[in-house]
Specification:
Blueprint (H helix, E strand, L loop, with lengths): L1 H14 L28 E2 L6 E2 L7 E5 H6 L5 H6 L4 E4 L12 E4 L12 E5 L2 E3 L2 H4 L7 E6 L3 H4 L6 E6 L8 E9 L3 E13 L3 E12 L3 E3 L2 E6 L2 E15 L2 E14 L4 E5 L3 E2 L5 E3 L5 E3 L3 E3 L2 E2 L16 H7 L17 E16 L5 E19 L26 E20 L4 E20 H7 L8 E15 L4 E17 L6 E3 L8 E3 L4 E19 L4 E12 L2 E2 L8 H9 L5 E2 L2 E14 L4 E13 L2 E9 L5 E9 L1 E15 L4 E17 L2 H7 L15 E12 L6 E12 L10 E2 L3 E12 L2 E8 L9 E7 L7 E8 L5 E9 L1
Parallel strand pairs: 6-9, 22-43
Antiparallel strand pairs: 1-2, 3-8, 4-5, 6-7, 8-9, 10-11, 10-48, 11-12, 12-15, 13-14, 15-16, 16-23, 17-47, 18-19, 20-21, 23-24, 24-25, 25-26, 26-27, 27-28, 28-31, 29-30, 31-32, 32-35, 33-34, 35-36, 36-39, 37-38, 39-40, 40-41, 41-42, 42-44, 44-45, 45-48, 46-47
């Protein structure tokens, strides 16, 4: 079976040789037809904080240009991942599947914690706090996806890679555009942009705004008037570029965005049936195996979605209204938070980039300053089924609670960060190039999680303390041409991470058990504890140019994912503290680490009409972060639960990535890309999975939530109309394949593979262009994600026998028009 899947990957990609998807080293920019050349256009990237030809950069890079973004309709990180081999998105966790968190997964590096991300995000090289934010840049110049540890240049959280969006520079003439799109499922988009000089040759601007919205594909079984998966986003961008002299460039960028989504398109599949008080089956049991000798579950492929789902209790009744009117301990003012089920997110980003070339020298000094402020609130029913017929055992008349059982949760989050980088670079135009600098990042955040039942009963939200981190770094990169063909690079970053835990600012906390922190009274808002971690993160690269057209490279790099903390352990006492300690739960959790070895080949042929890139890697992932949720019987016969993050895994990763692009004729361009991302667990601790399968040994298994095989391909036709010089047309079809993903490290349940086709065609006549498109042309309903979950019922215990599945948008047809002026 493994051999057949590998053959499927190679066969699909070769058949497409060259169809258009984001690839490691190509774009589909159409050459100037007036030159009568078939050559592919050169691509410049900033993978090492300096402009380099992507084919000469010894890093595995995907570069997607503005033309590709528009032609393929990439409007979200989800769109980008679907069309990029080796790139997955997971937003399915704890019964939620909204955009409050999006885990970016490159090369199979699947994080086991909600807030941990092995891929950091940037705009113009400046860090941003949310993957959603990077796609709020209207009409960027390009998107750069860097694979492998990028710690030397990009710093923390670049454990498996980095995603960098590069702004489009304003021109010297006034120009702009207006774009409108309509499509099925109430898809709508309006975008506008304007740019030009404010002071000729000295100060230019670019302002852009974007609004897009869509309804979900699926109806709520519990209320057929509701659709699940509704999303809307709006953003505004402003870029100012000042060039007061030939040696000085100043770029100031600001971004405001707001997301407002309805209940997520998430389905529930359960091994155990649930019936209401009338005997109606609201969740059918679909077990086909028994795990651990007693636990019914689903094995093999994830079953089809039952007719009773997707569903949820999403009515905004007096219970919801009264709960959301609670003001005590709220992080976000109720007027600015959610007022219905779904997500509300407000995001603000600003950065300032200054580049100064020292006259009569080869030195440049650069400064990058960034600020992020993100607030989001999510209201969800994590039961994910119609429970209106199941009585609420806690309900009494006048209590304000619902008479029926529900699992409604409110989550509110506020995070802020400030970053500063100063670097100097040198290029003598001959053999030596280097970069050296200092960086600083300060981040803090607070999050509250509470049930609406508790908010009604206590008239407050359970408070939380602040978490804070400060990261100091010094980095360097030296590249030297040893000969005309051999180049060596030595890079590194010395990083200091400081973590701080704080008591909630609302009340003093009395710690009676000294297992984790000294016993005593801690004042409201005071610092509970702090920890410091120091790491040196090197990368060594050897690069050899066989000819002017063919280059190979070899590299070894180290990376770390910043440490974490378990602030809740200070409340554990007695039996709870003893059990938590025995599970390896501590207040601070040390960073997870990776060492990656990579070999690459890049080249062009056939008079630069053929471009190809291949990379192979082997990574050792150590001290993996993992979340533990342990339920236990208390000394009085009741139930208790513990939650924490621990270092509890080690996995070896290996893979092969390739991409090719071939301009067959002046009218036809072919491209293909593919990835094999394999993981093999050496040892791993996951108590909840152990409870499910009855085994503690997951060695030899693969990590969940990522596709082992993936491929993208497409073909593009383009040409000019004969009736006028400024008229052209294009047509393209894209194919994207991803193999199924495992639900957990036990590897007993897996989604089916996906085959997605997108088609687009358009014409430009003068200043006006029209496109028609079909996304998910054959209306595939294969799941996007799968995640184990608890079956929430009124019983005093839980059943760990369900999975939540992410539901794919159905076929979407639409038309888009653009006017440039």
């Amino acid at each position: 079976m493994r051999k057949s899947r590998f053959h499927m990957l190679i066969g699909a990609s070769t058949l497409a040789l060259g169809m258009t998807g984001p690839t490691m080293a190509q774009t589909n920019t159409v050459p100037d037809q007036t030159e009568q050349t078939y050559e592919l256009t050169e691509i410049i990237v900033t993978a090492r904080k300096r402009a380099e030809n992507i084919m000469k950069t010894p890093v595995s890079v995907t570069a997607v240009t503005a033309e590709e973004i528009e032609q393929r309709g990439i409007a979200s990180v989800q769109n980008l991942s679907e069309q990029t081999p080796g790139f997955n998105i997971n937003n399915n966790f704890s019964g939620r599947g909204d955009r409050s968190f999006q885990q970016l997964i490159l090369r199979g590096f699947t994080p086991a914690t909600t807030d941990s991300t092995p891929v950091a995000t940037f705009i113009d090289g400046v860090p941003v706090s949310s993957p959603t934010a990077v796609m709020s840049v209207s009409s960027p110049e390009r998107i750069e996806l860097l694979r492998g540890p990028q710690s030397a240049y990009f710093g923390r959280n670049t454990f498996a890679g980095a995603l960098n969006v590069v702004n489009k520079q304003p021109g010297n003439d006034f120009s702009g555009s207006v774009t409108g799109m309509i499509g099925t499922h109430a898809n709508r988009r309006i975008q506008g942009e304007l740019e030009g000089p404010l002071v000729e040759d000295k100060l230019a601007f670019r302002i852009a705004g974007d609004y897009n919205t869509k309804d979900g594909t699926y109806k709520n079984y519990a209320d057929r008037s509701q659709t699940l998966g509704d999303q809307s986003s709006r953003n505004a961008n402003l870029l100012l570029v000042a060039t007061p002299s030939d040696n000085l460039t100043i770029k100031a960028f600001g971004l405001l965005s707001r997301d407002k989504d309805g209940p997520a398109a998430l389905g529930l599949i359960s091994a155990t049936a649930v019936t209401d008080s009338t005997g109606r089956v609201v969740v059918p049991g679909q077990a086909n195996c028994v795990l651990g000798g007693f636990n019914p579950f689903m094995c093999g492929k994830v079953p089809s979605l039952p007719a009773t789902t997707p569903a949820g209790n999403y009515d905004v009744d007096s219970f919801v209204t009264n709960a959301l009117a609670t003001t005590t301990n709220r992080l976000i003012d109720p007027d600015d938070s959610v007022d219905t089920y779904g997500l509300v997110r407000d995001y603000r980003h600003a950065h300032l980039v200054i580049d100064y070339e020292i006259p009569d020298s080869n030195f440049m000094i650069s400064s990058l300053t960034g600020y992020n402020h993100e607030e989001w609130a999510s209201l969800s029913d994590i039961g994910n089924y119609d429970s209106t017929g199941i009585p609420n055992p806690n309900y009494t008349p006048g209590s304000g609670l619902r008479s029926y059982f529900s699992s409604a949760y409110l989550v509110e989050n506020i995070s802020k960060d400030f970053s500063q980088e100063i670097r100097t670079s040198y290029d003598d135009g001959e053999a030596l190039r280097f970069v050296a600098g200092l960086s600083y990042l300060s981040a803090n955040g607070r999050r509250t999680v509470d049930t609406l039942d508790n908010m009604i009963q206590t008239q407050q939200v359970t408070p939380s303390g602040k978490t804070e981190s400060k990261t100091y770094g010094g980095f360097f990169g030296v590249t030297y041409d040893i000969t005309d063909k051999l180049t060596a690079s030595v890079e590194g970053r010395y990083q200091i991470d400081k973590l701080y835990a704080y008591i909630s600012p609302l009340a003093d906390v009395v710690v009676t058990d000294s297992t984790f922190v000294p016993a005593g009274t801690y004042a409201a808002g005071s610092k509970l504890a702090e920890q410091t971690y120091k790491n040196f993160l090197p990368r060594l690269i050897a690069q050899y140019e066989w000819t002017d057209d063919v280059m190979t490279y070899a590299s070894v790099a180290r990376g770390v994912n910043p440490a974490s903390l378990n602030s809740g352990v200070v409340t554990y006492t007695g039996q709870a503290a003893t059990i938590a300690k025995s599970l390896g739960i501590e207040l601070f959790v040390k960073p997870e680490k990776v060492t990656t070895y990579e070999l690459g080949l890049k080249g062009t042929a056939v008079d630069n009409r053929l471009r190809y890139s291949v990379a192979a890697y082997y990574s050792q992932w150590r001290d993996q972060l993992n979340q533990l949720l342990q339920t236990y019987v208390t000394e009085t016969g009741g139930f208790g639960s513990l939650f924490g993050t621990v270092n509890s895994g080690n996995t070896d990763m290996k893979g092969l990535e390739f991409d090719s692009s071939f301009r067959l004729t002046s009218m036809i361009t072919l491209t293909a890309a593919g990835a094999l991302n394999d993981s093999k667990i050496k040892d791993y601790s996951a108590p909840l999975v152990t409870f499910l399968v009855g085994s503690t040994d997951f060695s030899g298994n693969e990590l969940p939530a990522t596709s082992k095989y993936s491929a993208a391909g497409g073909v593009m036709f383009n040409g000019d109309f004969a009736f006028r010089q400024d008229a052209s047309w294009f047509a393209r079809i894209d194919y994207n394949y991803k193999s199924g993903v495992w639900a957990d490290v036990a590897n007993v349940l897996k989604t089916r593979e996906t085959h997605i086709f997108n088609a687009r065609a358009g014409a430009t006549i003068g200043a006006v262009s029209f496109d028609v498109f079909a996304n998910n042309l054959f209306d595939s309903r294969r799941y996007t994600t799968v995640n184990n979950n608890i079956l929430f019922t009124p019983a005093p215990s839980f059943t760990y026998s369900t999975v939540n599945v992410g539901l794919r948008d159905g076929r979407t047809l639409g038309i888009q028009a653009k006017y440039k002026f």
